[in-house]
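Minutes, project check-in
Item: structure for the 352-residue chain
Input as provided by the requester:
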Amino acid sequence: MSSQDIPEENLPAEQDHAHGAVKVADEENPFADPGLPPHEHRIQDIDERAAKRSERTVALLFTVSMLATIGFIASYVTVPDDKSIFVFPIGHLSAMNFALGLTLGVALFSIGAGAVHWARTLMSDVEIADERHPIEAPAEVREKVIADFKQGAKESAIGRRKLIRNTMLGAVALVPLSGVMLLRDLGPLPGTSLRHTAWSKGKLLVNMNTNEPLRPEDVAVGSLTFAKPEGLEEHDENFQTEIAKAALMIVRLQPENIKDKRELEWSHEGIVAYSKICTHVGCPISLYEQQTHHVLCPCHQSTFDLSDGARVIFGPAGHALPQLRIGVNDEGYLEALGDFEEPVGPAFWERG
């Protein structure tokens, strides 16, 4: 149904808003003003039943928002923070994070969609042309505002009534602590966890690709192998947190090519194990040059010499890669002889 099908007396009354007004060009104004196009009535303007349908739609969206908000609160209270779910095609996710994100997203979307539908179907859509007015207030208004402020400050006696002033400042200063308390839900304090990894004495070195323990004969001279600690599996809830500290590079060098004395002592038959985490911003190192024994971080090109204690020879990294002391157990598998003696990752020394 269009406005052409409705009798003129049933159409809403129009106000003169210069719809379709066109000025004729002349010498002083060579460009004609086309004005606004003729106003087209919406179906809701001429059919009360359509308006009621739009009203019910808006109310439904707002109701969905209220229910989603209740769902958000219920999820926060009832869903365990250690529960995970599988969502296709994303994979395993935290059940609480998924529930909170879904319900909050639905609540916010429904409010926005309801407001937009309300404005587009029920609020007036008549175009109005208006001249711009000065933004700043007149001088007399500004003077009055300043005078009123000074008068109010004088009448409040804030300078004389120190008890009120000091308690007010204390109240205003303490209120933000309510928001700070919410930060506790970000998780427990790290404590000394940054100083320790999943490596410990006797942990086998497991190949990241085959998920099998490594023997010395599995590591060829000039090869680069990535390893993880025994017992750390990808489906573990804390896998990403632990592998970010425990990821290992295994390289086999000729013993006579190892320049650093401690590196040679901590190796096994020329097999050395270093942290895979760059000491600049924590990117995983993956590029190895066999001839020079250099490893390169792909993010910012920090370069480390694995034949000389993994010291930094180029780039922004601040210190050498931590080395893991390794040996061989009775069954012939490579094992760790302890944890890293210094923390892995970037900028730790600046943090203490």
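Outcome recorded: The chain has nine helices and 13 strands.
No further action items on this chain.
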